[in-house]
Amino acid sequence: MAIPVPADLVDAARTGGRDEIELLLSTVWPDAFRLARAIVGEDQPAEDAAQEACIAVCRTIGSLRSAAAFRTWFYRIVVREAAELKRRRSRTEPAAEPPAIARDETSSIDVWRALSVLPQKLREVVVLHYFEDLSSREIGSVLGIPEGTVRFRLMIAKQRLRPLLGEYSERIPQPSGEVRTSAI
Amino acid sequence: MQSNFELACRSAREAIVVPAIPLGAIRHGAQVDSGERSGRRRRGVIAAIVASLSIVSVAAAAEVWGHVQVSLDPSGAVLMAFTKWDGPVRNPTERDFQKAVRALNFTAILPDGLPKGTDAESLTVFGPGAMQITYNLPGAWRRSNHLLFVILANPASVAPENAKLPRTAYSLQYGPTTGLGALRWRVGQEELIVLRSTITASELAHFKRVMMAKGR
Description:
The complex is a heterodimer.
Chain A: H1 7-15, H2 18-40, H3 43-60, H4 70-92, H5 105-116, H6 120-131, H7 136-143, H8 147-171
Helix pairs in contact in A: 1-2, 2-3, 2-4, 3-4, 4-7, 5-8, 6-8, 7-8
Chain B: H1 2-15, H2 23-31, H3 34-38, H4 46-52, E1 53-56, E2 68-72, E3 78-82, E4 85-90, H5 94-103, E5 119-126, E6 130-136, E7 147-153, E8 170-174, E9 182-187, E10 190-195, H6 201-215
Antiparallel strand pairs in B: 1-8, 2-3, 3-8, 4-5, 5-6, 6-7, 7-10, 9-10
C-alpha cells in the first residue's frame, strides 16, 4: 500500500549530500505522516512525529546497511517517534476524542474509533498490518518482536474489535460481483 | 468482516490529508547535535526552580499586554505577572521549542551561543508574550549553581523598572537566589533577559555576540 522507494534513491541518500536526502524524505514523507497519523490519532502530533522521524533519518541514514533494509528501518523510526510522542501526550494531556478526519464518514470513522479503543501495542500491529500492508515477519522486524508475537497480537486485536467490526460490517456495503449492463 | 475492515483501513489511510513536508524544520532539527540535546543525564529541575521562585496571588488592578508583564527590579530580581502559562516542559525537544515559538505573539529568536554542553532543562510559555527557558550549564565547578534562566519576551510586555505589577491571577519572582542581576538585550524583535548565574563573563559575551548577530 505504501509508495515503493527506489533503491537507487536510498543509495544516493546514504552516500550523497543534503539534496539526495531531502529528495528521499520528500518521497517518504506521505508514508511517514500517514503511519504516524494512524498511530497517534491526531494531525498535529502526527506531523511532529513524522518530522522527528525525518530528522532521525537525516542523522543516521549513513549507518543504514543496505537500501533493501530501508523500508523496515524507516517504519521502525516512525513507529518509535509516534509511540514516544503519544506516550508523552498521554501523561500531560487528556485523551482526545476519537478523530473524524475522514472524508467519507460512512466508511472511515469507525476505523478510527476501533483503533482508539486498542492499547498501543495492539494498535501498532493493526496499523502496520492493515494500513501499511506489512507481513507478520516485517512487523516483527519493525517492532523488534518475534513473528509469533505479532500474530498473537493481531489475533487479540481482532477479538477486541469484533463487536465494533460487527456493527461496522452492517453499515459498509460489500463490493458486489454483479455486472450491470445498460442499453445505450 | 475482516475484508471489510481491510477495505475500510485502506480507505481511511487514503483519506488522510498529508501536509507539505516541513523541510526547513527538518533541516534545522538535523543540524542540532542530538547528543547535546538528549545524551546526558538530566538533573532534577523542578525542586531547583521551585526553590528559586515564589508564586503568589496578587490583587492590584492594571491591564496586562499579552497576558504577561515582565519587570526588572533594581534589586536584581525579575518579576512576572501573568494570567496563564503553559509548562514547564521538562527536557524540551526541538519540537517543544517550535511549538512554544508558534504560541508566542512575537518573532522569537531562540538562544544560541551558550557554552558547549549546555542543556535546556525546562521551557515555559507565559501568556503569549514571554517564554522562559532554564538551562543546565556544564562544568562540575559550578556545583549546585548550574542553572541559567533566560527569558524571551515581547518588548511590549516588558515594563519599565519599578513598574507596579498589574493585577493578574499569578505573579512570579526569580530571586533572591537567582536574582543576582539581570541583563537585558534587544535581539531583533524580542527582549532577551538573562539572569546572572555562574555563567562567566566570557561565556556571556560570546552568548551576546551570537545572539546579536542572529538578531540583525
